[in-house]
Fold each of these.
Amino acid sequence: MIQLHDKYFTPYIDAKDIDSAIKKLATDIKKDIGNDIPVFVGVLNGAFRFVADLVKYYDGDCEVQFIKMQSYEGLTSKETVLSQIALTTDLTNRKVVVIEDIVDTGNTLTEIYKLFENEQLRDLKIASLFFKPTAYTKKHIIHYIGFEIPDRFIVGYGLDYNGLGRNLSDIYQLNTTNMTNLVLFGPPGAGKGTQADVLKEKYNLVHISTGDVFRYNIKNETDLGTLAKSYMDKGHLVPDEVTIKMLNAEVEKNPQANGFIFDGFPRTGAQAASLDALLEEKGSQVNAMIALEVDDEILVSRLMERGKTSGRPDDANEDVIRDRISVYYEQTAILKNYYQKQDKFIGVDGVGSVQEITVRLSKAIDSL
Ligand code: AMP
């Protein structure tokens, strides 16, 4: 086990295996390129070692260039922009092979394709040392892949965690045995959002509220927002397929998290099963479902009160509120069962002051 900053990593792929994979990639690329002279375009920073070893094993003349892409974090979406180092040679009629260290969601790849869109290349191929098929959301073909890996956070051989780890010759994976993943449960108005805000600071967790993500998308008039709105306005659940895909993408944005507070998710059996699968892929699990228990009439009056200031159309109307509460009991009570069976259900009294309830929740979390 090694430590980088605040996190621990365990050995995952050793240098010898990386070396053999790169030899094979060099041979495969050479076969396709034939006698032409390719331009290898490395994507900095992560790919510097991969490029160096790949050209070492490449049996023929080649040129080497680098580009640098940088991600910046939006409020809920991570977009990739091109920065600093751009292409300098004329690539007209050249065979280009882009050399990436890792492809996960594929956002960077989309930008790379845009970058070469107007160049009159003879051929464009992508080689990536690592590929995470379950995280990948795009359709671009990746022509040469060294290793297909599960959705784990890895460092070493060029890849870093906050700047450290690039010099390691082996690949290490984040030790996730200490991750804390909580499902915060309870009917609308139970105070999940308020408590999640306090608990995420206290336990250094990432809070994902599916309701908030939907509302963010509605505000920004995305396709997802338009779709979700038609269900949300009536107090109905957004279809599983849409919700699960969105949740997975939110988790994916935080590969280094110490754990998550899931708020408003899962709400159906299918969502619960998909969450188990997602966390298992990361070598982790749901530690507990903590349910805030509050009487229906208190909920209705809390939500009517919130509706005066929250601007949420689903909070202002008593019928919609009662409908949401009954949807909660009908469709999601099975989840209590689901987690009870795994001995992971903890009920907490949700009536009292914010501080009182935080104390009760903290006791439950500390006991895990
Ligand atoms: P909330 O803010 O959690 O009360 O969610 C508000 C609305 O967003 C719900 O009434 C649903 O329409 C939608 N929504 C939020 N989370 C989910 C989910 N896990 N599955 C389906 N729909 C959801």
Note: The first helix runs from residue 15 to 33.
Amino acid sequence: MNIIIVKDALEGGKKGLELFENALNNGAEVIGLATGSTPITFYNEVKNSNLDLSDKISINLDEYCGVANDHPQSYHYFMQKNLFDVKPFKESYVPDGANTNEEEACGAYNTILEENPIDFQILGIGTNGHIGFNEPGSPFNSVTRKVDLTPATIEANARFFESEADVPKFAYSMGIKNITDAKEIVLFAYGKNKQEAVKSLVEGAVTEDFPASILQNHDNVTIIIDEEASALLK
Ligand code: GLP
């Protein structure tokens, strides 16, 4: 695991762009994308770059269930606003949270992932160690499926909704296996409230109780963290 400590999220976004450009120069075609507040500085750098992504494919990690694709809190909408409006890809995939047929929605997504292996995967991390929406206890061999969001995640994401009651309770998420199948992974984490998660990610036991810990076993992972998030590391 390569660790890059930066001053702040702005600098983290710039570092992320360097790694992304490097991957593209080495032939990356399929890019795994994440939502959340953390990757936004990276997306801003991509938007301000002269990169042309119109012949690339993007595949997002997850989507809330039961939320229309044009709902302002959907991850479809997030990606459109934060990246795709300015930097369109040839094809962009996000799980179809509006499809109530779990088997169909997740099966189709797993097929997309099989046909388009991810070259470069962006990740954030939840304070409980979730990546995508793979909450603690997610099997390391999991693929895209419907997942229950934990009370901690519902509470953490309530800030984006009018009230906690409006936060979806389920999501379709790529599984841990889909994520770790990516050739290269870059995870961003910033701020004091990610300190404990970063410590477990880097120095903790590899366990399904802390899903992101599996990244310790991957041979091409870089974590980009700011000084605050790195404060508990030995
Ligand atoms: C969400 C997303 C994750 C993201 C995490 C952290 O639940 N499904 O992909 O990494 O929250 O979000 P933030 O970057 O806003 O802290």
Note: The CA atoms of residues 160 and 226 lie 24 Å apart.
Amino acid sequence: MRRREFLTTTAGAAIGVLAGCDACGRRGPARSSPGSGAAAVPGDPQAAADIELALRAEPARVSLFDGPPTDVWRFSARLRRGAPSALAPAGDGYLGPTLRVRSGQRVRVHLDNALDEPTIVHWHGLYVAERNDGHPSYAVNPGAGYDYDFEIGNRAGAYWYHPHPDHRTGPQVYRGLAGLVLVSDDDERHLGLPDGDRELTLVLQDRTFDGDNQLVYAPNPMVGFLGERVLVNGRLPRTLDVSRGPHRIRILNGSNSRVYDLAWSDGSPLTVLGTDGGLLDAPQDKSHVVIAPAQRLDLWASFGDRPGDDVWLESRAFGDLGPAMGMGMGRGMMGGQAARVPNGAPLRIQRFATTRQGARGAAPDRLVPTPGPDVSRVVNTGHPRTFTTTMQMMRWQLNGRAFEMRGVAGNERVRLGTVEDWEFINTVGPMAMAHPIHLHGTQFRIIERQHGPGLDSLRDGLFDDGWLDTFLLLPGDRVRIRVSFERYAGMFLYHCHNLEHEDMGMMRNYAVTA
Ligand code: C2O
Ligand code: CU
Ligand code: CU
């Protein structure tokens, strides 16, 4: 049986078919959509989707401060089909609405570009075919649209959507274009994790505003953009009133370049339930946890024994992540400004105040068995493909190459249905800095990390377990990942998720061929 995905024009005519078949080893959920008998015919473009929405990228004004409103760009969405709970409004900040979907559901999205420049939406972390992945070559002009049609093939977890046009991802995300996609599945539901008002989502983004409350985007060409204050969910953080007892806190680092080393202000450990690609085998306690741009963390937390207790989620201080953080470099040689609040500055992020009684409870002992890819299936054990961070003409690159729209080098071709080991190398040198590395189209496991020198406390907070689509490659590190290419043939991106590095070309394609 062929699995097909259709790209339709805004007029609704099918113009493309992309193969990806069961016989090719794709392992996804069964085609049946729980809770909906609608999509009876696999891949049928006429069949109804479980969820259908109109998504618009548009200019908007939001009131973030007293005084004049702030001009932003924002995703707004209208549900055309599906349960109203599939679309949770974003609140009063600039973030786009949260999509709540289930594994196996078929989702159609019509994107409308109401900006004055090209854009395209990428579904970060989701397994989708190339045509649905938001590759920059699919960007649409102002006034035009794009139709997505995909099945949720991922495990329960927090994923997200954001623009991905060439050279302009950093500024578009910065102005407000981003939102969460929360996927649930049966495994997760059976755990009975805290939900309703005991499930909190926190999207962390640093921003700088001028005296008229307008966003200022002045990235340093080397370091990227580092803002002067941390916003939560697209607005200034307000104290969150919580009830006593267990909560689930889902965090996305939606910042362009900032790394957070999260900890509780009262010194209690963070209890990690999951990472980018969903839940762990079992919760893990850590005194602090690093979250790099684009990464997600699923935390379990129990608040206050008595009303009046309060606690902050903080980012701990850590050392310089790169060359231009301190003197001279940033300003002089690179022609940009040094950040007023550099990476590693200690930050208070979000305050939680216990204002209501509630039942106490413990985190579950076990979550969901999540074995990584079997070593016997790796086609290049002991001989990983290597990818080195490099710089030319003051621009970050990968293996000496900058992004080429449809360019794929010899070492960037893999076969559908295989599992490979890839190694990313961040050589130490005067220019070395941290790079959050992200692969599209797949989730992977870290199988080895050789640490570079220094940054000891930060390294201690790295969380390398679980399924990931993004990891932090620190100066001097060699990180080996095990990654499977079992979903779709096509061209996908891998890149640095420091969005300014991405925009300057620290991004490449890899091609999966049958
Ligand atoms: Cu969130 Cu290509 O990235
Ligand atoms: Cu992505
Ligand atoms: Cu980078």
Note: The pocket of copper (II) ion (ligand 3) is lined by residues 396, 435, 496, 498, 501, 506 (CB under 6 Å).
Amino acid sequence: MRRNQLLLAIAAIMAMASNSASAQGLAEAYKDMFRIGVALNQRNVSDAQQQALVCAEFNSVTAENDMKPQLTQPREGVFTWGGADSIANFCRQHGIKMRGHCLVWHNQIGQWIYTDSLGQPATKELVLQRIRRHIKTIVERYKDVCYCWDVVNEAITDDVNAECPYRQSRLYQICGDDFIREAFRAAREADPDALLFYNDYNECDPVKRDRIAQMVSSMKADGVPIDGIGMQAHYNIHYPSADLLEAAIEKYSAIVPHLHVTEMDIRIDHNRGGDLLTVQQGGVDATGGEMQQLLQQQERQYASLFEVLRRHADVIDCVTFWNLGDRDSWLGADKLPLPFDVNYRPKHLYTIIRDMQSTEQVGVDQRAAERPDPNFHIYLCFGQSNMEGAARLEAEDMEGVSERFLMMAAADMPQQGRKTGQWYTAAPPLCREHTGLTPVDYFGRTMVESLPDSIRVGVIVVAIGGCHIETYMTDSIDAYRQRAPQWMLPALEAYANNPYMRLMHLARLARTQGQIKGILLHQGESNTGDAAWAQKVKTVYERLLKDIYMTADEVPLLAGEVVRANGEGVCVAMNRQIDALPRTVRTAHVISSEGCTNGPDRLHFDAAGYRLLGRRYAETMLQLLRR
Ligand code: XIL
């Protein structure tokens, strides 16, 4: 055992040295942007040099084949775990998280699923029941190591002329699109913490792209728990263009909070896509000079597509290469599609990807390349009308805002000349164009007054008057929007109809610039009497932490009480639940509204009330910072 470990360590060092690579591998180079993953086969995890390479370069692993339906359940009820376990155990040993791949696919699935015990065609109900059982069994088994799953693979057709957007697979013919819906539901039930993906290829082709987007968004509107879209990225040196990739990212990221590039390879011939029947066709027949040219084209293509991925690091969480080295490529080694060659040595291409500098680019990319400033403290704020700010701004509120107190616009504010995602001195309004004074105004003022001059404080406020906590729950926002009253629609629209996602994306961006120190919540009025409120807050808080890669201990939650009005507040009953929040959320702290004056509606604070409440949020936060 010890000898093995020693050999492994030596091999690791040798591999690194022969890599010429470097003190830092790909995963390290991209740690502030996204994970870098790799698809592995059995040989990769049993060879010491390859193991070392994986550990040095990658921080996400996908089993290339071993977790697929055919391999894990070749016959009904007969589960074979050998291959899947050996990859999972390798990852467990080395602390690498896995992308589970894949639960339901028309390829590599046991044909038994289509036939009943009497040899008759299986009914829809039987197929769905088998899908549910398969998913439950495998997801539960790898819960500890798989942080996400490709739940359904390749269900949209490649035929641009087809009337029906779905691939006419046997699964579809028997179940219609219910096999997709049921699969996601079963996966959520088996592991509520795993991120669930729909995964497909040719995902940048406009027709297929729009069909994927349409399918996912309408299913989400029906409450199907889809967290992300997997873009397989089986590309070639000519296709797609950077513009097509960018358009796909923009389209998908408006619908789901997570995008993963799941199976990237860029082959040097004209073939592309992920269709198993055609993918190995074609070949490379090039002379020395031509080959040189192809490789240069490949480097340019990788660089230009990676530039797009880096620019969208706020929505992309993971980029996985499909296979470790060219020797393993499912396309055949002659397509030379990967950063490591047939002997697992890094190519020039590898260095280009790893050492890419964001040169001329502006925006997210450039900022992401800078180190987050430890003296820039950032607070995420969300809630309903009292967070939005319901009191009219008074002269004193407009004056004396320190330049050390900043706000990131969470929606465009044309009147103030503010653009979403940019920082400005935090003169009110902090929420949107026409909102008023919020508790966050005096929270920020008090923070900068109390902290050393070297510290800047930034706030990001996303709030919608009248909204329930459900507005911030990724699984229910689409259904919620359908029911939302007319007057709420413009506010939702300002956040592209998904306020959670807006907050989360901006938080990810902010994380590359400063340190997120806390979350301020003022919400509850609309959930008065909802016994599950605390649990729902917990769900939102934990999801947000997870999505921004932070922990509860790093980022406390400060929740303010609603208007008391000496016991006559319209929603005062809610304070009992708010006060009890720390029992459900260990790192929650309650901000008292005692003595905070209110307006005539007994629902909203007045300006003086917001000022006092805001200072109290700051006092609590300052105490926490001192700890
Ligand atoms: C491929 C594997 O790489 C091959 O070894 C296997 O023979 C067929 O499947 N889309 C997917 C992957 O989602 O699972 C496929 O993997 C490639 C296309």
Note: The chain has 24 helices and 16 strands.
